[in-house]
């Protein structure tokens, strides 16, 4: 694994906790994919509330704990690696959103 510093790309993938790919939780499949493809790292963040294109509100309120909470998967790597994986992600996501932005990496170590 090479050193990752300077200007890189931050990819955020917004999905729901109930999203699946081949009967498996999509967020787990994505993290495994990024690891297998040698990405620098990936983090899954669980939201306490949110809504998407359909404007359906998802919250972690007591009666909705087992419902579809929002998840964000963050990945930072070089632009070429991010761009190369986008077609595969497009096939896997049935909904949600992907955003890309420049990120300045100050420190990265194993």
TrEMBL record:
Pfam annotation, one family: DUF190
Species, as recorded: Malonomonas rubra DSM 5091
Protein name according to UniProt: Uncharacterized protein
Gene3D superfamilies: 3.30.70.120
Family, per entry: Belongs to the UPF0166 family.
